């Protein structure tokens, strides 16, 4: 697994946020995306307030992320097809 400490991470296919809440602490910034608005709503609800300044959620598919690639140190794509 990659060192996530202080990194800016793009998570494609965050679903209900299981990995988001597990891996985001300690990162510099975390953008979690998923095209399923219900799943993103569930992920937002499950995210602890302590992560509010780090984690941002977006209802978008991986090919629709509105951010330059150089904004991220790492892209996470797991459990998504």
List keywords for this structure.
81 residues; alpha/beta; 2 helices; 4 strands
Q: Extract low-pLDDT stretches.
A: none
For the secondary structure, the number of strands is 4
Largest sheet, in brief, is: 4 strands, parallel
- Class per helix and strand makeup: alpha/beta
Major beta sheet, strand line-up: 3-2-1-4
Radius of gyration: 11 Å
Q: How many angstroms does the end-to-end distance come to?
A: 20 Å
Could you estimate the helical fraction of the residues in percent? Answer: 10-25%
Work out the helix count: 2
The string of secondary-structure elements, in order, is EHEHEE
Polypeptide structure, described:
- The chain is α/β, with parallel strands linked by helices.
- The chain has a domain at 8-62.
- It has 2 helices and 4 strands, in the order βαβαββ.
- A 4-stranded parallel sheet has the order 3-2-1-4, covered by helices on one side.
- β1 (8-12), α1 and β2 form a beta-alpha-beta unit.
- The longest helix has 10 residues, at 37-46.
- The mean pLDDT is 92.
């Amino acid at each position: 697994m990659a060192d996530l400490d202080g990194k800016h991470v793009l998570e494609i296919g965050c679903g209900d946020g299981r990995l988001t809440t597990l891996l985001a602490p300690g990162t510099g910034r975390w953008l979690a995306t998923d095209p399923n608005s219900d799943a993103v709503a569930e992920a937002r609800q499950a995210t602890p307030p302590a992560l509010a300044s780090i984690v941002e959620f977006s209802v978008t598919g991986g090919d629709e992320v509105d951010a330059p690639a150089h904004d991220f140190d790492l892209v996470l794509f797991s459990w998504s097809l």
